[in-house]
């Protein structure tokens, strides 16, 4: 079984893990109600792109 020749430093390890940060979800403002909602989702009042779907 292969064994690493040297120990991985803290800096090298942390650089490898930089992509694990949190991202902000895409929010849009609903024109009908004025509330923020997640993109590509139906609003609580049943509208999507200013059209009644439910």
Automatic annotation (TrEMBL):
Cell membrane as UniProt keyword: no
Annotated Gene Ontology cellular component terms: large ribosomal subunit
Classification of source organism: Bacteria, Bacillati, Bacillota, Bacilli, Bacillales
Family the entry assigns: Belongs to the bacterial ribosomal protein bL32 family.
Bias (Basic residues) ranges: 7-20
Pfam family, one: Ribosomal_L32p
The UniProt record lists the keyword Ribonucleoprotein: yes
Cross-referenced NCBIfam families: rpmF_bact
Name the record gives this protein: Large ribosomal subunit protein bL32
UniProt GO molecular function: structural constituent of ribosome
Chain residue ranges for the region called Disordered: 1-54
InterPro entries assigned to the protein according to its UniProt record, in alphabetical order: Ribosomal_bL32 (IPR002677), Ribosomal_bL32_bact (IPR044957), Ribosomal_zn-bd (IPR011332)
GO biological process assignments: translation
């Amino acid at each position: 079984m292969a064994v690493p020749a040297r120990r991985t430093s803290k800096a090298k390890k942390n650089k490898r893990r930089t992509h694990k940060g949190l991202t902000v979800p895409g929010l849009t403002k609903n024109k009908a109600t004025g509330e923020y909602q997640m993109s590509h989702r139906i609003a609580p009042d049943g509208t999507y792109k200013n059209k009644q779907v439910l």
